[in-house]
Amino acid sequence: MIEKEPVSLKKLMNHPDVLKATSNENQELLERRKYKPPVCDVFKSRYNYLETLEEYCFELDRETKKQLPDLINNKVQAVRSADSPAPSLKKAYDKQRRIGVVFSGGPAPGGHNVIAGIYDAAKKANPDNKIFGFILGPDGIIENEARELTKELVDRYRNLGGFSMIKTGRTKIDTPEKMALSKKTCKDLNLDAIVIVGGDDSNTNAAFLAQEMKNDGVQVIGVPKTIDGDIQVRDSKGQVLCAMSFGFHTAARSFANEISNLCNDCSSDVKYWHICKVMGRVASHLALEVALQTHANMTLIGEDLANYIDKKRISQAAKQGAVDYTAYGMTLRHLSRLVCDGIVRRASVGKNYGVLVIPEGVLEFINEIQIFITKLNVIIAEYNATHDKNFHKEFLLLEDKLDYLRRLARQSREEEIISVWNTRDDDLFNDIPAFFQEGLLMERDSHGNFQFSLVETDKIIMGLVKDYLNILKEKGRYKLGIHKDFFKKTLKKEGLDPDFFGPVLFRNYDEGPYLLVKESIMSNKTLKQELIRGKVLKNEDKIPKAIEKIYKKSVPNFKTQLHFYGYDGRGSDPSRFDCNYTYNLGLTVFALIANNATGQMAAIKNLEFDFSSWQPVGIPIAPLMRLEERSGKLTLVIEKSVVNTHSTAFKVVESLREKWLAANPEEDNYRRPGPIRFTGKSEEDRPLTLVLNAIPNGHDLT
Fold first, then answer.
1. Backbone φ, ψ for residue 99 (5° rounding)
2. Could you give all domains of the chain from N- to C-terminal order, each with its CATH number?
């Protein structure tokens, strides 16, 4: 045998195929960088001007008027083409500018294209314009950590996900000291404008910065970013100005592709229920879009649960001449029953598997949870005030705390007094898993608020579901359906007559293709008793192996796999929709700056329609702000937008729930959205929720 001479490691590592295989740059990346997003018609002109749209109006908050007096009267402005610009517009547009850009909050796919749009528009207006990126979010403004963005750097990140170009951070410029340092940074860099790319809190911050820096001549423009989709702007008449923040479509598609893969897996392996928690602490927009994208068997929508009314309990109370106020709003117990019902119904037709989608913040919509938090806050505060002691130090163990609550409930019943904590509260609280009880009784933050972000939503719901499924199994109501053909084949193989044993074994032998073992049969012992009672077996006989096999097959083994979808989606490379959206947002930002706007949020109106209908606008931030309780005090913030249960998208999902549950012998109705396809003609051009919500406004339904 002739041994080959060993290849030099240096030669190997320099081999063209090795270099190509291990390069950071693949064909997809190169194609993304080369992609040039289409631009809205108004940007095909060299110059743009702003037209005030008086038809949009807002209800103004009194406190906003007081804190943002220079911005409160800002109007919606549309970006228009200036084909024959006046000399004054040309001069203002072409003047040299220095613009700072900052990412604030978590990443969202498309952020780099906002910068690319600003950069391209600024350089087109004046090649001497300079764009600076603040490093690590608002800290970069406070500490004057910035880098000038070059063409080479911007080109490297075009159409790519993440905020890697300049990084991001969560600091807020919310103190006089931070504001003073930020002003100094703007002065040191001689900035004309700052662009804040962020969510509701970040755009709120942008408004306060715009107010503080107005007299310094520094413009501040916000850009709506959040994968949760909870920045949506309507005026006081309900007219849509911003249908969706950027990054939502990509995140939803990323989640949907992964969850669709689980749909494929569970319908192949037929032994798991996949529980998929998706981001969305306040709103369920992502869950709704994922439902449309995947047709998962069950999807919980928090806003829908908040509207739940238990009509049965209301009717019972009415017969007694009373009103049951606790019948309004979903309880954890009832929610677990609804989930169990779907699981049991699917199992009855042989489908002991499925996919359940849960929004991250669903528990915030459960009325009893909010009531528990409020009541426990009062109990803890009252105990501390009355006894001059710390509740959590006095009751170190969970059992000690529960015992104290039981005493309060018992006192309310025995002494017939109105108490914060009554026996019904105690009963409901005892239905909750111990780890969640401990969570609800945990020490409050420094402002006395409950730390909701620490709660494991999926574990809580599925803990209750598993407990109730065990109860249903013990009652003989949770059974796995046996296909009639399989039953007959199994018995005939052992020489038994299926029609002789069938009516005794099953409660629906003369119905449908799937057979359900009788509820009274819950063990081998009760199986034999039923066979003897049905006179197909004698006391001294053994249960036939074929019958035992059928019985064992009817006993469901409920297995779950828990999944969380969040950071993977927000770090995804953007869909073509988000590439186009964010690039045009960047162009809109520069048009607003060039026309001396400040305190405005760049947006694209008509996102829910075809690209040809998109209209760049500037939306005033101040009129969007309302007083809300944050960290124990009332603070001005932009109100988050939740799912509208009267919207077309929700109504469509609601009407298709039964079909997607597929609790019938037919095949499941899973949809395969596929991965984000940057190239080709099959990529969808906008989120499905926007497509559906556009129908009443954009099409004739008659």
1. -120, 135
2. 9-74+95-246+574-640 (3.40.50.450), 248-473+560-568+649-695 (3.40.50.460), 479-554 (no CATH)
